[in-house]
Amino acid sequence: MLVDISNHWQSGKVFLYRHDELVMSRCDSIDVYQDVTEDAYRFGIGKTPLYYHEVGTSVIYSKMEYRNKYGSIKDRAGFFMISSGIKKGLLDRNKTIIEASSGNTGIALANIAKEMGYRAKIYVPNASSQATKDAIMVTGQEMVEVFDEASKHGSINIDAAVSMLKKEMEMKPGKYVNFDQYSNDANTLGHYYTTGPEVTSVIGDSITHVVISIGTGGTITGLAKYYKQNFPSVKVIAVMPKPYHKIQGLKNLNVSKTPEILSKNMNLIDEWMDIDDRDAEDMLKKMIDLDLFTGLSSAANYFSAVKIAEKYPGSKVLTVFPDSAEKYREAYVHRQLFTDDEYNEYSAYFRKDPSDTLYYGK
Ligand SMILES: Cc1ncc(COP(=O)(O)O)c(C=O)c1O
After folding, report:
1. pLDDT reported for residue 309
2. Could you tell me if the CB of 249 is within 6 A of ligand 1?
């Protein structure tokens, strides 16, 4: 029989041995992540609009992930990691969540933890945008800025932040829970259980290609798992930035460590593409005409999706827009992609984004 012991976890009424036993039986008897999926929707994460636009005879569908509760695709990973961590008995009120993130995961974890009543400490590379750091600080959770070699060149590399976090955990055993988005299956499964089924619920089984750039690899591996299992003819194409790129959220695997969730799911990826910063930047400017004002990784995804849509006429290409332009004013103005006035004009205009489930770009 399944016993709901969630209240006992909160109040600490169950002895440790008994507690572990119950947690194990709960994990064994039901799919924890199925539970988390329902909780995520109740919490207000997911069910983002699907933007679509034709390229010749092909159609590109893009999940507008910046419409998530805390502004990015990482709300899904953040919620799935925290919520499954609670259900598995890894997180309690005496522990602090500790995580390294170049931005969006940090923002998601800090906010979700706060809303659920938990503490979080986030290690952020110095090169991440000031607006990203502000968004973490404003939650009242702790943030540590990490100065590293890559930051000196304005490039973002998470590895130094991860090493610092590990040292802190070694110094204070038992104080922290590190969900580690790079190795945590919850990061992948958030997309397997929510993003994939959401797309199918809106447009049915028409997708032919999934084209998505990699950071932790959570999005691509989750969607790849979903499509390979349910619609095996779908081709999955991973997009990688060049070494020392400046696209916040993405990783080049030749100069950064390959995340575990990606290395163990490599067999799900059919093809790899490169993306150049310049191509993403040019696409970012063109996307204004499509009613879109996004982060650079969205432009990288869209550029790559257009390439596939053109290469395979009649295809239905799925991609994602991980975040909006909201956190990137300084980067865009500094790199002369937009003037300050243009940034103001577009961000005011695009705040009026649609809330429809399926949204046709002009
Ligand atoms: C803006 C942005 N784009 C893309 C990604 C990559 O997503 P994933 O980690 O699921 O590979 C991230 C991840 O943090 C991100 O913040």
Report:
1. 98
2. yes
